[in-house]
TrEMBL record:
GO molecular function: precorrin-6A reductase activity
GO biological process: cobalamin biosynthetic process
Species name: Streptomyces cellostaticus
PANTHER family: COBALT-PRECORRIN-6A REDUCTASE
Protein's pathway: Cofactor biosynthesis; adenosylcobalamin biosynthesis
Descriptive protein name: Cobalt-precorrin-6X reductase
InterPro entries the UniProt entry points to: Precorrin-6x_reduct
Pfam entry (one): CbiJ
Length: 248
């Protein structure tokens, strides 16, 4: 019988993995999306949308749909689903792989300030600049809502949810973003400090280069840790290897 792979998606890597697996004869692949984005874009293979109902719900889904392997290819900051996936894979005795693109690392000329949370980012911001480019996503902006004296330019894929800081401009846009455009954006809005999560990947990395070239500080929210005992592979090739599809 065809092996059935469930990918927990929402990332570029999940999309690439689905395309690779769907092109293999005899492999059934289903991508699961949380349903946060209105138009998630084309995905190869089957797609299901919406939460499972916690680790128990995911365990049931793995059993009911005869899943042979689970790939957690969710975003590095999607902490709850990663915990649930690890629990469900154990409970249903389904082999699991976590795909996490490597995090960003500062290079010469970077002025990065690592913090553990959005709240910690809000604490350091006022001493770094008054005009802020905030690219941490549309959720969690309440952490900055009390910063009345700062001007925020918020960029997110979907419009952000209130509460927001009172002086906020919103740019709704989806990457990838190029260096020339990012530099122009920082200049046009007279940005003094950038805030980002350590998402990693190339699609949104140009803002870091632009900030370095303009001599701007960057506040980097570090990733939540993986659940105990869980290790990750950094790319699609690593997942294919672990699933036994690797090699020439
Ligand atoms: N967090 C980010 O910065 C970010 C950025 C880009 C993309 N994403 C993507 O957006 C999705 C949601 O992220 P999040 O940070 O809100 O997640 P989260 O906090 O880890 O998950 C919250 C709940 O959403 C449901 N869920 C999350 N991912 C799911 C998936 N792939 N399929 C089905 N249900 C899912 C689960 O509900 P139940 O408990 O009911 O199963 C989970 O408990 C993820 O798939 C992630 O890859 C997140």
């Amino acid at each position: 019988m065809s092996p059935h792979v469930l990918i927990l998606g929402g990332t570029t890597e999940a999309r690439r993995l689905a395309a690779d697996l769907a092109a293999r004869p005899g492999v059934r692949v289903t991508t699961s999306l949380a349903g946060r984005v209105a138009r998630p874009g084309q995905l190869d293979g089957e797609v299901r949308i919406g939460g499972f109902g916690g680790a128990e719900g995911l365990t049931d889904w793995l059993r009911t749909h005869h899943v042979d392997a689970l790939v957690d290819a969710t975003h590095p900051f999607a902490e709850a689903i990663t915990v649930n996936a690890a629990r469900a894979a154990t409970a249903a005795a389904v082999p699991a792989v976590v795909l996490r693109r490597p995090g960003w690392r500062p290079g010469p000329g970077d002025s990065w300030h690592d913090v553990e949370s959005l709240a910690a980012a809000a604490t350091v911001l006022p001493r770094l600049g008054r005009r802020v480019f905030l690219t941490t996503g549309r959720l969690g902006l309440a952490a900055f809502a009390h910063l009345r004296d700062l001007h925020f330019v918020v960029r997110s894929v979907e419009p952000p949810e209130p509460p927001l800081p009172p002086d906020t401009e919103v740019i709704v846009a989806r990457g990838p973003f190029g260096l020339a455009d990012e530099t122009e954006l920082l200049r046009a809005h007279r940005i003094e400090v950038l805030v980002t999560k350590d998402s990693g990947g190339e699609a949104t990395a140009a803002k870091l280069t632009a900030a370095r070239e303009l001599g701007l500080p960057v506040v980097v929210v570090r990733r939540p840790p993986l659940p105990d005992g869980v290790t990750a592979v950094p790319d699609v090739a690593g997942v294919l290897d672990r699933l036994g599809f690797g090699g020439p």
